[in-house]
Hints:
about 140 residues
Amino acid sequence: MFPRGQAPAYFQSSSFGGATSMQAVDFNSDMGEGFGPWTIGDGVDFDLMAYISSANIATGFHAGDPGTMRRTVERAKQLGVGIGAHPGFRDLVGFGRRHINAPAQELVDDILYQLGALREIARAQGLVLQHIKPHGALYMHLAR
Length: 144
């Protein structure tokens, strides 16, 4: 993220997305997508987090588990990184990339369950979720 008023000129021009100025750029990344002893991305989440401004934290259905979620939230707090929930379909085997044909209310229930889990882990660290970014096939399903 650029400090207020210090974004490069090309981000401030009216030709960039029609904006006349930009206060900040949010560098965002999916985080905590391991499960138990298995890591995704060669275990570089904690190092990479030093270079982002917000993290989408996996909430347990496509990846993540309570310990991974807690450690990821702790690291975000340590670095001042904003946190958001990264819910997915109930699909650990397919890493949330497979569409799950489920009734709408079941999907709502699954999403609320995942949000609640991460919200309470964050609250235990004195943090509040800033955003929600659905994962994989759930993102595509919700975009339809």
